[in-house]
Amino acid sequence: MAKKIVEMEIEETIMELPDTKTLRLKWPEDYDPQFVTGQFITVYWPDTPKYKRAYSLSSCALDRGFYEVTVKRDGKMGTRIVDWAKQGDKLFVIQPVGKFNPVYEPQKHLICIAGGSGVTPFRGFAREATRRGLETKITVLYSVRTTTDIIFNDEFRALEKENPNFQFKVTCTRLAEDDPWSGRRGRINADWVKEFISDPAESVFYACGPNALVDNTEKLVLEDLGMPKEQMKTEKWG
Predict the structure, then answer these.
(1) What is the pLDDT of residues 192-231, one digit of tens each?
(2) How far is CA 115 from the centre of its chain?
(3) How far apart are CA 38 and CA 35, in angstroms?
């Protein structure tokens, strides 16, 4: 079956960081897709139809009337979006697909590991769980270079206050020694992840971001922690 392609107007742009922008793409009338949180859309500009790029949705399936994607200045598409995309511009959008989806079961604990813009789908995970009042536990372990690289910090902190089953934990890898940051420093490792595992059999691990981070996380979870492969989901961004 052919995937549905629809032209959408950029309803709003939000600069999350100097190099990271969220686009809100408005659905046209009579467009009412069925999809699940954690999937991705593929977009392209009308003037360059052969150049397409897939982006995870940073919104969730409960957000109706629009899609949101959060894009870092990277490559041709990322640079054009961050530096030039504006309200009123139009993009062609291929319907959501993908299997990087949250397992919303009451006893489950979703341990979500991300680096850089790989955190974007986890905003959707936390948004939906919070709005639905789910018992599913979600912990996001997020690696950034410095505190100025944290995407969605305010929203994640607000979701923590609203949802007792959600945690947002950040570790910084390149802070100056005299930086006042009181949180964790260094890369994500097995010892840190272990701190959040209360019931290994009910833990589901997610890793999203650059290939190196995802590969390292997969090794950490499957080899260092000895978790079965069926409890691991990954999304690589090249």
Answers:
(1) 999 999 999 999 999 999 899 999 999 999 999 999 999 9
(2) 10
(3) 9
Same domain for 92 and 25: yes
Any idea what the CATH number is for the domain that residue 181 is in? 3.40.50.80
Global pTM reads 0.96
Give the CA diameter of the chain. Answer: 57
Domain that holds residue 216: 109-236
Residue 149 and residue 226 in one domain? yes
Q: What is the pLDDT of residue 1?
A: 59
Kindly give, in sequence order, each residue whose CB lies less than 8 Å from that of residue 62, ignoring residues fewer than 6 positions away: 37, 127, 128, 131, 132
* Model confidence pLDDT, tens digit, residues 150-174: 999 999 999 999 999 999 999 999 9
Closest CA to 137 of 168, 167, 158, 101: 167
235 contacts 208 by C-beta, under 8 angstroms: yes
Question: 115 and 230, same structural domain?
Answer: yes
